[in-house]
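Appendix B. One record, verbatim.
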Amino acid sequence: MTAAHPTLLESLSAWTLVVSFAISLLYEFWRAIARTGVSRYDSLPAFVRGLWLYVLAAIVIVLLFLGVPFAAWIGLVFIVLVIAASIFYYNPTMMIARKPGILDWVEDLVYTGLAFVVAALLLLEVAGLTLA
């Protein structure tokens, strides 16, 4: 039995997820340390409670890098849920409570933008299309 290999779209999606979740993790850690107390979302305990999302993202990333069957579908469902949470929960609830500055908005736009890139790449993958 041979090991599965990820497609180009799966690899690009995985690397994009690595970048976006690394940016997000660093940002959330910064908020927990430098902006403690600005909102109920800005503290070390809140940061630790939110780590489950990064663990889940790491699992999706590993599945994509390994080229596991259905990894693209799993990744697509995951990233659509991330986008929905960003639009319908994070921005109207957390972001506003955090009294955002320019860095907050830039991080949010980059993170969400990269999520849309991943969704597009994985949509191409599950549709059976490739990059030329």
